[in-house]
Amino acid sequence: MSEFLIKNGFVFDPLQGIKGDRMEIAVRDGKIVETGALRHPETIDASGMTVMGGGIDIHAHVVGPKVNVGRLFRPEDKLFKSPLKRCSRMEMGFSVPSTFKAGYDYARMGYVFVNEAAMPPLHSPHVHEEIRDTPIIDNAAMPVFANNWFTLEYLKNHEIENNAAYTAWLLRATRGFAIKAVNPGGTEAWGWGLNCENVHDPVPYFDITPAEIIKGLIETNEHLGLPHSVHLHCNNLGNPGNYTDTLDSLKLAEGYTPKNNFGREQVLHATHLQFHSYGGDSWGNFESRAPEVIDYVNSHDNITIDIGQVTLDETTTMTADGPFEHHLRALNNLKWANTDVELETAAGVVPYIYSPKVKVCTIQWAVGLELALLSKDLMRTFVSTDHPNAGPFTRYPRVITWLMSRAARDATMKTFKWLEKTIDATSIDSIDRELDLYEIAQMTRAGPAMALGISNTYGGLAPGMDADIAIYPLNPENMPSDPAEIEKAFSRCAWLLKDGVVTVRDGEVLTEPAKRTVWVDVNVPENAQVQRDIYEHFLRHYSVNLDNYSLFEEHLFNPRVIEVDTTQ
Amino acid sequence: MKTVILTMTNPPELYLEGQNITPDAFAGKTAAEIAAIDVWEGKLKSPLGKYFTVEGNGGATAADTKIILRGDCSRLKRVGQQMTAGEIVIEGDADMYIGGWMKGGKIHVKGNVDSFCGLAMEGGELIIDGNAGHHLGSSPRGEWRGMQGGVIRVAGSVGNDTATFMNGGTIIIGGDADIHVSTHAEGGTVIIKGNAKGRVGGQMVKGNIYVFGKIENPLPGFQHIGEVEEEVDGTKARFIHYIGDLGERHPVSRGKPVYGNIYTRV
Q1: Which chain A residues are within 8 Å of B83, Cβ to Cβ?
Q2: How far, in Å, are B5, B65, B122, B258 from residue B85 at the CA level?
Q3: Peptide bond into A513 cis (omega under 30)
Q4: Which PANTHER family does the annotation name (chain B) (predicted)?
């Protein structure tokens, strides 16, 4: 039995509305409790420090086959970039770190939960094996649905109940967490060498449009009442002028209201919105349309977003948006890996350099920050870099610093070769807003926890929740004038308690408490039609047998099941 | 300039990783401090003094420091890796990765070297009196940015995969080259005084290759466009000029496509 009492810290917990009050946080047996419940606690003195719940990353690619492809085909990503061995396992890499480095780095930043953003269902055993190998942080993984043949066929005929039964079956087969949609229809269209750039472009052969897929998935999600909403990577990612397609996608959520028992308030999470808020019609007149997009999000409560901030690093892009990666390869002429995952999805990997000398890159940098700084509700706007697509997650402290300090933004902008053109094409220079620690806690903890439907367990400091507590060496009453100090504080937290175990102390990882795999088990009425469809498809089209497809129990590591029952 | 003389008195049983043997690491150190610098033999870390006797102190800066290596250094790797200034002389053979990722200064090897020497070099001079192995002045594995600058001069012959992904700088080979020269090159110059075996300039976008002897098996992706007279490394001669690799993409500069050039002596 372990007991801790955290004293004297400034506590920020947006889930309870606590804005920097000095209060005590009590921990007993891995849970947060009322201070009266402690008998002989060990005291942690957090005087002059910021106390928050453990960080939550709503969207990152840290485990699974495409991440591993990135590791394999970028040996240069590890060259002279591997720190000396300090923890129990070797740390390697920068943009595609080893599983160990990913776990340790998240812990050093005070993060405890990471949602793997795209799991190809067929390769779920690989995803879960890497989850097991990633220390400390709890993981969930979202299987991709929006190019899955079953989903396309059910939604074409508007069979929501059948699609819900299939979705429940696949979540259980892959031990998945939520419905992920990547370039709905477009990735499948790519099998014919085509793409769906607008939500009304029909998917070849399937005779359905991305709009119908997105609406169908929202209906399925609310029919089931899953903890998280549909997690959408819109069509036409990364191209000039795509903000109209993004608005078309977001408008599809109009009229839907969330139905769930998990405190989630949105029906659609639009991910890495930075990549979807571009104006212009070529790379020459490329410009930001972030204000239009975020205005729409501000006025519609049933949508959440994460920003996908470009960090101006050399990184490795990887996405289940196969056509986009093919397109990107032609833009930068670097090496490229691609794959098609049978009936389900596709993926590609391309290295990319976001350079402060390139106008498009610096405009992209501004777009991400505009989305966050123009947002009116930071409980619906989250920090992400779409790791590693726009930059590695180890840059979150830098992203936070840009959000908290106009001086930090100005210092970065001074390094831009095309500063005037960047200022002309964006509104970043006219924004003076500087976020405070409460708003950062909203964007990195409370908000993502609410959106993922796990705010009863993660993201806050209320009694009964997991004792995941990050303490940063930052005094809200005396913030450092040098923004680099903020970045340093968020990079290496003073303390991290994970499940009530002291995991990080002064930025050094001390222990590796048991991590968990979080998944959603949905109980649906028996559906003979769907069972027959699954049997038939595996017989005719899949390269594996149905019995070999579902995850074996031994692949699943230390599960935490979220039960959903739709039969009542 | 101060000189540090390292004499190999106790050769390693395995191979010795000598990335700390650079003017940058030796600068400002006394002989005793230099003898305490770490080197790795396999997975075991030992002080430099276990293998070498050290005479002389390092200079105040890297540029003021000269290192002379004596004795049997044929199992010593990575000497001069990432060095920025100063001078290293190896009075005999050395092993792999000599002068890798070098940024400045000068390395002179009086014997032969093995593979991966001058890897991803950015500047400075690497002079080899004997032969070099494979991947001379090449890119590290996986990397698309190879040699950026500097000069590599080999008196003897070289192995295969010289100057892969070369972007700049010059490689001068006194003898012959094995297969694959300047694969994927986007700049830089390779001069081969002897013969080249084949696959010269495969997937080359930009850059120059001069072959004084014969290319045994020329690639079909190169097109003969005429003869030119040029002065190459102090020799004035007539060359047959080929452009290519025509199977590769080629950037356009001032309205004209840029090609890689191969010149063979008439």
Answers
A1: none
A2: 17, 8, 12, 34
A3: no
A4: TUNGSTEN FORMYLMETHANOFURAN DEHYDROGENASE, SUBUNIT C (FWDC), TUNGSTEN-CONTAINING FORMYLMETHANOFURAN DEHYDROGENASE 2 SUBUNIT C
Residue A219 has pLDDT above 70, yes or no: yes
pLDDT digits (tens, 9 = 90+) for A83-131: 766 667 888 999 999 999 999 999 999 999 999 999 999 999 999 999 9
pLDDT at residue A175 tops 70: yes
- Scored b (16 or more CB within 10 A) or e, B5-41 reads bbebeeebeebbbbbbbbbbbbbebebeebbebebbb
- Chain A residues whose beta carbon lies within 8 Å of the beta carbon of residue B144: 334-335, 351
Q: How far apart are CA B254 and CA B235, in angstroms?
A: 31
Are A315 and A389 a contacting pair, CB within 8 Å? yes
Paired tokens of B122: 């950015």
Q: How far apart are CA A389 and CA A368, in angstroms?
A: 13
CB B79 within 8 A of CB B69: yes
C-alpha pair distances (Å), A182 with each of A76, A123, A167:
29, 16, 16
Interface test with chain B among A72, A73, A76, A96, by most B beta carbons within 10 Å = A76
Interface touch B141/A73, C-beta < 8 Å: no
pTM metric for this prediction = 0.94
The per-residue pLDDT for A1 is 62
| Residue B221 sits at the chain A interface (C-beta within 8 Å) | no
pLDDT digits (tens, 9 = 90+) for A300-340: 999 999 999 999 999 999 999 999 999 999 999 899 999 99
Q: Name the 3-class secondary structure at A381.
A: strand
Distance CA(A454)–CA(A457), nearest Å, equals 6
Q: How far is B143 from chain A (nearest CA, A)?
A: 6
Neighbours of A261 (CB within 10 A): 11
pLDDT of residue A191: 85
A435: tokens are 């976020």
Amino acid at A379: M
Distance CA A189, CA A324 (A): 12
Which A residues 344-373 touch B at CB under 8 Å? 351
Nearest residue to A62 via CA among A14, A113, A15: A113
Instruction: List, in sequence order, every residue forming a beta bridge with B215; answer none if it has no partner.
Output: B196
| pLDDT over 70 percentage in chain B | 100
Distance CA(A255)–CA(A567), nearest Å, equals 25
Of B82, B101, B142, the CB nearest to A74: B142
Q: What is the DSSP string of B136-168?
A: TT-PPTT-S----S-EEEESS-B-SSBTTT--S
Checking DSSP bridges between strand B196-198 and strand B215-217, what pairing results, if any? Answer: parallel
Closest chain A residue by Cα to residue B146: A76
How many other CB atoms are there within 10 angstroms of residue B211's CB atom?
26
Residue of B nearest to A72 (CA): B142
Q: Which residue has the tokens 């039960």?
A: A563
C-alpha distances in angstroms, B67 versus A340, B103, B152, B235? Answer: 55, 17, 19, 33
Residue A89: per-residue pLDDT:
82
Beta-carbon contacts of A554 under 8 Å, excluding residues fewer than 6 positions away, are: none
Put simply, the answer to whether A75 touches B141 (Cβ < 8 Å) is: yes
Joined tokens for residue B104: 């400045």
pLDDT at A102: 96
**Are A75 and B249 an interchain contact pair (Cβ–Cβ within 8 Å)?**
no
**β partners of residue A559:** A517
Number of H helices, E strands in chain B: 2, 21
- For position A82, what pLDDT does the model report? 73
- Six-digit token string for A308: 């996908």
Asked if A76 has any chain B CB less than 8 Å from its own CB, the reply is yes
Residue A143 CB neighbours (<10 A)? 26
Q: Which amino acid, A296?
A: Y
Please state whether the peptide bond connecting residue A429 to the residue before it is cis, i.e. omega within 30 degrees of 0.
no
